[in-house]
Design goal:
The protein is of the alpha+beta class. It has 5 helices and 4 strands, in the order αααβββαβα. Strands 1-2-3-4 form a 4-stranded mixed sheet, with helices on both faces. It binds zinc ion (ZN).
């Protein structure tokens, strides 16, 4: 069964907006308070991440979570290989050409710059990692729909 496009579901859009407002509020917090708040946000939206973790684990790979000393705090860290995986929600991280990431029609002007800023930050983080000798892979939320293909992508990368 095909899930509904996320941004068009009113409840979900409201939650996303709430999360965004939280992100704006975070810009004015102290680093310590921000780190606590980040932890809360992380713990709230992890279903995609958990599914990817389980898949990678079942494939026989071992990893650490949230490389705190690496740019962007990657979701899965393969230290000996110097490789990391980011698990990205299609909407928040602006997955190009993905039906999952269309911003809500009604407030496109509002959403577009925020989401583009997220995507820009992701790109910078990956460049920073490359500069210090780490390779990174992005796993998109929508890729979980075809686990076999995703497994192949992950094993090829690792
Ligand atoms: Zn996607």
């Amino acid at each position: 069964m095909k899930p509904l496009p996320a941004p068009d579901v009113p409840g979900k859009a409201a939650r996303q907006e709430e999360a965004f407002q939280e992100e704006v509020a975070m810009d004015i917090l102290t680093p310590a308070a921000r780190s606590i708040r980040m932890g809360l946000i992380r713990s709230r939206d992890t279903s995609t991440e958990v599914a990817v973790r389980r898949l990678v684990h079942a494939m026989g790979y071992r990893y650490r979570l949230y490389g705190k000393d690496l740019p962007g705090r990657p979701d899965l860290v393969f230290k000996a290989r110097r490789k990391v995986i980011f698990v990205h929600g299609c909407f928040w991280h602006l997955h190009r050409n993905c039906w999952n990431c269309r911003p809500p029609k009604s407030r496109r002007d509002y959403w577009k710059p925020k989401l583009e800023r997220n995507a820009m930050r992701d790109k910078q983080v990956r460049q920073q990692l490359r500069r210090i000798g780490w390779r990174s892979l992005v796993v998109w939320e929508c890729e979980l729909k075809n686990r076999e293909r995703l497994s192949r992508k992950i094993s090829k990368f690792l």
